[in-house]
Structure formats: C-alpha cells, structure tokens
Amino acid sequence: MEEGTDLVGAVQARMAGAEARIRPHIRTTPVEVSSVFSKRAGNTIVLKLEHIQHSGSFKVRGAFSKALAEAGDDRPVLTASSGNHGLAVAHVAGALGRPAEILVPETIAPFKYALLRATSARIVKRGRTGYETLAAVRERAGKGTHLYLPPYNDLEVIAGQTTLGAELMRQDPEIDAIVASSGGGGLVCGVAIGAKAVKPGVTVIGASARNAQTFYRSVAAGHYVKTLERPTLSDGTANALEPGSITVPIGAAMLDETILIGEGAIHRTMQRFARTERWMIEGSAALSLAAAEAIGKTGRFRRIAVIICGRSVDPAKLV
Q1: Residues 117 and 220 both lie in one domain
Q2: What residues does the Tryptophan synthase beta chain-like PALP domain cover (predicted)?
C-alpha cells in the first residue's frame, strides 16, 4: 500500500501541470443523462461522452500530457498500439507538427489497421502479440531518436487522464459513483485520482471483462498476476497489462471496487446503445455501461457516471 500511496502522490503532483499543458489541445466533452439506461438501472446514469474526444477516445489526454511534459523536446514520437492509443498519438503528433511511428502487432484487427493507416503516422508491424510489439518499441525507444509515448504505464500519461475525472466532477458534482473500464489501468486510475481530488467521497469502480481479468486479479492481489485471457468484445482492455505496471499499486490504493462483466452483457449493451443513444461505441465503453447497470440495480448509489471511453468499433460486431 505504501508504494501505491507514493505513486498516487507523484501523479497528484503532476496534475496541475498536465491540466495546463493539455487544456488548449483537448475538448471538454459533454455529460448527458441516459433516460433509457437510468430506467434499466433504477437510478440516474450519467454518460461522460469521451468517445467524441479528438481521435475518438480519452487517450489524447495522456498522450498530450506526455508529449508536452518535456519543454523543448521536439523529437518524433513513437509508440506501440493496436487501436485507440495509436490513433491518439497520431493526432497528437499532427497537432504538434511532429512525425510519428506506431508499431502494431502482426495480428492487429484489419478494421483497426485501416484506421491507423488512414492517419499520417508511419505504421510498422512488429511482433505477433502486443507484448512482443511492446518489447520492440521499448528497444527502439532506447536508441534515443524518438520520444516514447506509453499507453498507460507512465506518471505523466496517468496525470493526463486525471483531467477526465476532475472535469467530470466539476460538470456534475452530485455524482456519487463513477465506473470506468480497466485493462492497463491508466484510465480508471487517472479518473480516480482526478475525481477524488474534486470530491474525495466519490466511489470509483473499475470494470473488467470476465475474459480479460489480468488487471482485476492483479489489483485484488496487490501485485501483477499473470492471467490467461480469452477473446473479448472489450478488445481495448484485453492483454493490456504489463508486469511491473505502476497502475497496479495505484489501483489498489485508489479504487473502491472492481467488477467483472461477461461477453453477453457487453454485446447487448453495445447493441442497445446504438439503438437508443444512436451512437456506436466500442466494447470497452459498453463494458463500463453494463457494469453501471448491474451496480445501479443494487440501489447503493443515486447517480452513477459512466466513462464512454471510445468509439473504435467494427460495425460488424454490433450484429
């Protein structure tokens, strides 16, 4: 717990700087009450619409925070990603006028590969798995020619995500619980630190797919637990956590609860959101919404906010 407390303090010390750096570059995304999901949950469900953020997800907050943290560092940017983080890094590089190189696994989904190829970044396939791609990008970053923008395992990146939690609580101070998806943990840890800085009593809950439990089990144990993961519609949270990630002790220190959600609930929520809210959202966003619905039915909270974290979804998955 002491390690987690120290890491939380290190992120908190970076919050004001991250806010000042990234605010000119990001959108203040709206919050809306969902009448459909509120009725289903039996309380008020508030949607934080981060899927309409630049590049289609919350990821630009952390990417801008890291890219701008070192004044005068104008090296090309580099990262590893098979989805939202890569799109965010490409956007950040374009906004700052820098070249970007994004390494992706050879097994990347064709839909996401096409999205990345449509950006101005150089896309390079390296490694069969996300872990192999991450190892390749770390080796490349060690040469010093590029600025590496990690997807989550970095204090400045997490500080960037705290702006989302703080922004949400300022928009709607009556929220008494927040649900965010958890894979690598950068989103939910940042949201927890930012939200609790504004309203210390707010409950923050991490939602994980039942088929991708590495973060869930690691936080419960207080250390990294290697877990066999299966395919999930919440592919943005799958195979995401690397050993030794700082998000595990931060999550253990800051998260009030964690919850697992099955594939059926994720799929039904993606479909229902498309029909009733008229937006397509990815599985990791539907994961959080399905979790909020389940939590809402317990009657413990009056007003639950859900981070609708991204929209990188193949329409075929909504069938």
Answers
A1: no
A2: 22-310
Q: Which residues pair with 57 in a beta bridge?
A: 310
- Same domain, yes or no, for 206 and 313? yes
CATH (domain of 304): 3.40.50.1100
Q: What is the pTM of this model?
A: 0.96
**Are 60 and 319 in contact, with CB atoms under 8 Å apart?**
no
Q: State the residue range of the domain holding 119.
A: 59-148
Q: Sheet containing 303-307: which strands, arranged edge to edge?
A: 31-33, 44-48, 303-307, 177-181, 203-209, 257-261
Last residue in a domain, options 148, 180, 196? 148
Q: How confident is the model at residue 232 (pLDDT cuts 50, 70, 90)?
A: very high
3-state secondary structure of 221: helix
pLDDT confidence of residue 316: 87
pLDDT single digits (tens) 54-109: 999 999 999 999 999 987 888 999 999 988 999 999 999 999 999 999 999 888 88
Q: Give the count of domains, the chain.
A: 2
- Rounded CA-CA distance 114/91 in Å is 15
- The dihedral of CA 109, 164, 298, 223: what is its sign? positive
Distance CA 162, CA 12 (A): 9
SS3 (DSSP) at 259: strand
